[in-house]
Amino acid sequence: MKLRTFNAPRADIHLIEGGSGPDLFFLHGAGGITADSPFLAALAEKYHVYVPLLPGYGESEECENIRTMLDFTLHCHDIMLALDLDKPIVVGHSMGGMIAAEMASVMPNDVDKLCLISSAGLWLDEHPIPDVFAAMPYELPELMFHDPVAGGAIMTAGADFSDPTFLQGFLVQNARQLGMAGKILFPIPERGLSERLYRLKAKTLLIWGESDKLISRPYADAFNKAIPGSELVTIPEAGHMVMIEQTSAVVKAIGKFF
Amino acid sequence: MKFTWFNLMPWPHLPADFRQKHKSVWVDIDSKLYDPVKGHDVYNDYMDMLEYADSLGFDGIGVNEHHQNAYGLMPSPNIIAAAISRRALNAAIVVLGNSLGLYNPPTRVAEEFAMLDVITGGRLVAGFPVGSSMDINYCYGDIPALSRERYQEAHDLIKRAWSDPEPFAWNGRYTKLRYVNTWPKPIQNPPPIHVPGGGSVETYDFCLDNTYSYSYLSFSGYIRAKALLQGYWDRLTERNEPDESPYRAGFAQTICVADTDAEAERLYKDHVSYFFNRCLHVAPGFADAPGYRTIKTIKAGALSQFSPDLGEAAHMPWKQLVDEGYVIAGSPDTVRERMEDLIKGLNVGNIFCLMHVGDMPMDKTKYSTQLFAEQVMPKLRNMWPDYADDSRFWPTPLEKRATPGPVSDHKPTTGGA
């Protein structure tokens, strides 16, 4: 996978790109994604994968002019236009799923294949989503993974919080990334998507980890109910970071559906 | 020097094992710990104390805004300010302050501060904090990365609402109003404005740009505040500002006075411990929502957000708290000496005296307050003779002000014309 940059109307884009096959446009979650992701490598075996980093993620500059859900949605659509992509498979994880579902609802004629993985965007009072903005770093593996020990080891690989330089870098990254994500996820990760899903026309696949403790199973059912003709695939021994814990099962489900 | 008697209004009935059994004093504090009937006495005692400080000649009496917080029982400081303003007739009413971005529309701040200024005959000091992350983000749901932009817009709107003599339309990003026409207008237009800050470069500049006084409301005392306030003064020098008047800055300090140093320890130790141990028990996850601090500020070294310093003094012995300046405590002479260090060391003209601490009962609070007012304050009064005429940061009230009339005069007469 290679990283390149180009201009879009609202911000400079840092794009991870690689592989060959049908176009696949992937929108990452609030934790971000890197070019060495095994999940992206697996996708790249079957698809031409395009992964824009949202402003503030990776080395990209923060963007003060992206504030609202509509801004995020149009920004991601701008990227698709700039890449000259014609109806790619649009895949989004968590926050990325929320944006992907918005794109498919706001521009229903431009998105005909949609895959939402552990997607944010809905809120069910009976199943409140835990507040990741008040979570300490050490509390995250429990929320994110089916196997918190193994997952935590992946998350904190190389981390040394007692090193002030590392800590400052971590805090800066956290402020940049979650500061940006907070614009659509804080304090409640819901911005009215449920009122717009009726517009969506895409053939839609939902993928959920069976032990997702962050955005739990009832959310999968709620998306499934709200999107006509959608199909839900649940994956055992996987939490919210399903594509990290069960990479091949996720890639296989996408390959089978589209 | 300007001395403001300042009360956070802590809840004095937190259990002894609060730190062990409860997650946080703030945001998701167990609401079962609040008892409104006890609260009735707490509020009235605290308002008595503010009024008592006025009677002893403090320059100001101060209140501030916190939400869902057991050490700060004033979600609306303006209510307390209004309530005390009819018995406290001389001191400035220092509201430190209203978190501008939380008021919808923010013209509410323009209106309420104008009311307070008019009621008090021009005695208002208007505080314009952004607000802590706990208050504005976690309690009030303001989006962290947008908080500063919202604040800035609210600030501009409030200032114009006070100053523009004509109704105007406001097409803001966060507030849209067809007719802004604030009634009443303040007597002091604008009132002196103080901005509580926590070390962000942006807030230093904001104060210097607008000639506002920068207040550091720390609980960890003057010795640890040195670096932060030095950052402010360095910034002022960098920008070639025309003066370094100490009234450009203020500092909050816990102060306990008794006849002797030993007596101060005996009288106040447990109450100070209550404050540092129970009141400052804040869950670290609520310390700083990501995006609340700017990247520039984090890079400047605000690492405290990862392990907030609020709990660091929880188990410190009295001697250490005093030696390290968390608390200035002792005989009037001891307190005076250390106050001189504070005032000179930080170059500050405004002191917010935290004299009611934790669960301190009223008799001790009065005793400490009286000793400070009578035996310490007079000796510190003229520490900045070169800046005695600097009136930019303190109210200039009407000379002839109304006093509350006797209630018996208000009996109905025959009615009609």
Strand order of the largest sheet of chain A: 1-2-4-3-5-6-7-8
Structural class of the secondary structure composition of chain A?
A: alpha/beta
Count of discrete alpha- or pi-helical segments spanning 4 or more residues of chain A: 9
Low-confidence stretches of chain B: 303-308
Which residue ranges of chain A are poorly predicted, with pLDDT under 50 across at least 5 consecutive positions?
A: none
> Rg of chain A, please?
17 Å
Q: Could you tell me the CATH topology label of chain B.
A: TIM Barrel
Compute the separation of the termini of chain B in Å.
52 Å
Q: How does the overall form of chain A come out from the CA principal axes?
A: globular
CATH superfamily of chain B: Luciferase-like domain
CATH architecture of chain B: Alpha-Beta Barrel
Quaternary status: heterodimer
The share of residues in helices of chain B is: 25-40%
CATH architectural name of chain A: 3-Layer(aba) Sandwich
**Helical amount among residues of chain A, as a percent range?**
25-40%
Structural class based on helices, strands and sheet pairing of chain B: alpha/beta
Descriptive overview:
The complex is a heterodimer of chains A (258) and B (417). Chain A is of the alpha/beta class and 258 residues long. Chain A has a single domain (2-257), classed as Alpha/Beta hydrolase fold, catalytic domain (Rossmann fold), CATH 3.40.50. In chain A, 36% of the residues lie in helices and 18% in strands. Chain A has helices spanning 38-44, 69-82, 95-106, 140-144, 148-155, 164-185, 217-226, 242-245, 247-257; strands at 2-7, 12-18, 23-27, 48-53, 89-93, 113-117, 203-209, 231-235. An eight-stranded mixed beta sheet of chain A has the order 1-2-4-3-5-6-7-8, with helices on both faces. Chain A is globular and about 50 Å long. The model of chain A has no long low-confidence stretch (mean pLDDT 95). Chain B is an alpha/beta fold and 417 residues long. Chain B has one domain (2-401): Alpha-Beta Barrel (TIM Barrel), CATH 3.20.20.30. Chain B has 13 helices and eleven strands. An eight-stranded parallel barrel of chain B has the order 1-2-3-4-7-8-9-11, surrounded by eight helices. In chain B, strands 5-6 form a two-stranded antiparallel sheet. Chain B is globular. The termini of chain B are far apart. Classes of the chains: A alpha/beta (258), B alpha/beta (417). The A-B interface holds A 62, 64, 67, 133-136, 139, 161, 164, 167-168, 171-172, 174-180, 182-183, 186-188 and B 27, 137-138, 141, 143-146, 149, 283-286, 289-295, 298-299, 301, 303, 305-306.
